[in-house]
């Protein structure tokens, strides 16, 4: 049976392409139908129609509010009979809202796997992302074969909400590394050190990281087409601060990167790749 897929933004398209490359048949739904008509997939008219055709539906949306909309809209997922249906949610969700998703799908007889992706477009196309999943163990076990077609490293954290919290913690590293690499790049430019040489040295020195490997070419070419946007990392770091606040936990190193990405959003550059933060330091 075909897999259902909802959310064909930058990351969603990459994941969908990966599944297609792995010989999976997809039926898709996208809020703006015109954006997916040229992708070659069968297109459902609504989330309800999609889940009626597919036993497994994958969500890859920007935030929890978008997930709620897919659930509750006219002809949304919750209007369908969910008995025997599984929703794999790759969205980076809010740690509180995601608990409701577990509960509401369970109440309707369906299965819900909270499965945020760690990685962006390039590794997603190659099946090299990491996925952390929370939900029922039997559901995870039955869906692992699908997850392994998307990601290289798969982790299971049973308790609902933990996968989303882990994703936010991971993105503290991601945002902090990117801000530091961007500032290093701008400072190197000011010191008249060629950026290619600077990034090469950082890549074998203190800057070694997946972030640097992923963004070196984009920084050299000043290519800010989005793989992971300023809007997305700003949203995630804000949610991370919500998490820390709810725990009465000081969070020292998240604040400055978050505000830097917020400045990019305010400047109208929210849809650019988050490596474009280098422009702040050059200005």
From TrEMBL:
Residues 3-156 form the 6-phosphogluconate dehydrogenase NADP-binding domain. Pfam families: NAD_binding_11, NAD_binding_2. SUPFAM superfamilies: 6-phosphogluconate dehydrogenase C-terminal domain-like (SSF48179), NAD(P)-binding Rossmann-fold domains (SSF51735). The keyword tRNA processing does not apply. The active site is at 167. The keyword Phosphoprotein does not apply. GO terms for molecular function: NAD binding; NADP binding; oxidoreductase activity. Keywords: NAD, Oxidoreductase. Residues 161-280 form the 3-hydroxyisobutyrate dehydrogenase-like NAD-binding domain. This is 3-hydroxyisobutyrate dehydrogenase family beta-hydroxyacid dehydrogenase. The lineage of its organism: Bacteria, Pseudomonadati, Campylobacterota, Epsilonproteobacteria, Campylobacterales.
